[in-house]
Design goal:
365 residues, alpha/beta
Length: 365
């Protein structure tokens, strides 16, 4: 690495991981004793993303869901910076440094504008919580999984607050089936959450000043505060002027082969939401991507032939969306269900304990 390459690591194969989300964090941890691992991430911490909304109604929940990269990467280097470009054998970073690689794994997922430090992120949750607590009415813009889960958290923890969702789609949770959408709408309605479909709110002109929001159809909604829960852009814009620009599809996803290697590249892999794998983009699948690429990196480092590499098989449509602390809606290949059983699977702990265990962390500190 420019300005500070560790001399004792040069004999080891260097694996550079760009992105410290679910996929990148798990892969870096799994490889840290097998290679010279460098994790590049603009944040100093890993955040369990599906715990974000619970942390907004209960900030102390983030004590376990925000984890410093150095807590689970005891034998790897963490560079707190953004990758800005890739050449044939180097990653260039925003801080002016660069790092060379033998193998590169891109796991930049979606572009989130979250704070660099764990302390600032915790303070952000406290501010959001204060915003919710001090408001009698809350507007949620977006009826995908984030908007629905936030509405569920507020409706269950603060049943006296008036919650409204405005969603531009014709149904909630469009990424899963119609039956799950209908069950979710019925559940939210039973909790007195008001839902406006096929409407939007202009994000460029909204403010909380006057407490009145006008939708695209002219509907007036009164709310003391609002949260924007629309989809985040993919974290691939930095690749558009790089050696991998021809490997991006029209949606900005990296095209990968059955081994999760970037198409046309023998030593560059992509995992998680940034890939063009035809499946619902979810954390547990990003974890599976990481597991396959760890296997393949181990095999390639041993000189194994390509036809022996592990293949990734896209998953069938399966999802669980939390509805407060005890309930959830689940779509499985064989059934759609709502209530306490899906809630039992996900909603109580939101898989935080399992994820910490995967990263080798057992206690809450």
């Amino acid at each position: 690495m420019a300005g500070g390459d560790a001399g004792d690591a040069t004999s080891k194969t260097r694996v550079v991981v760009v992105g410290g989300g679910v996929a990148g964090a798990i892969l870096a941890r799994s490889m840290q004793f097998l290679a010279d691992v460098v994790l590049i991430d603009p944040k100093e911490y890993f955040e369990i993303p599906w715990a974000e909304l619970r942390s907004m109604v209960e900030p102390s929940f983030s004590d376990r869901s925000l984890i410093k990269h150095t807590d689970y990467l005891t034998n790897a280097r963490v560079v707190t910076s953004s990758a800005v470009k890739i050449t044939e054998n180097e990653v260039l970073m925003a801080d002016g440094n660069s790092v060379s690689f033998d193998y590169l794994v891109i796991a930049t997922g979606h572009a989130y504008s979250t704070p660099t430090s764990k302390k600032e992120r915790f303070e952000q949750f406290q501010q959001d919580n204060q915003k919710i607590k001090s408001s009698q009415s809350v507007l949620i813009i977006g009826g995908g999984p984030t908007g629905v889960e936030l509405a569920g958290e507020i409706a269950v923890d603060y049943p006296d607050k008036k919650v409204t969702i405005v969603h531009k789609g014709s149904r909630l949770l469009e990424f899963i089936g119609h039956k799950a959408s209908k069950k979710t709408l019925d559940w939210l309605t039973s909790k007195k959450v008001k839902v406006f479909l096929e409407q939007s709110v202009d994000l460029d002109i909204i403010s909380e000043g006057d407490g009145v929001y006008t939708t695209s159809t002219g509907e007036k909604i009164s709310a003391d505060c609002h949260f924007v829960c629309v989809g985040k852009p993919l974290g691939s814009s930095w690749l558009q002027d790089s050696a991998l620009r021809d490997c991006l599809n029209k949606n900005g996803r990296l095209m990968v082969d059955e081994y999760l290697r970037v198409k046309g590249r023998s030593n560059i892999f992509a995992i998680g939401d940034i890939t063009d794998v035809p499946e619902i983009k979810q954390g547990f699948l990003a974890e599976k991507h990481a597991t396959v690429v760890v296997k393949n990196l181990k095999l390639l480092m041993k000189g194994t032939k390509e036809n022996k590499l592990a293949k990734y098989k896209p998953a069938s449509a399966m999802a669980i969306v939390s509805l407060g602390r005890k309930e959830g809606v689940a779509q499985f290949p064989f059934a759609t269900m709502i209530g306490c059983l899906p809630g039992l699977i996900k909603s109580k702990d939101l898989f935080v304990g399992n994820t910490r265990k995967t990263l080798g962390l057992v206690s809450s500190t």
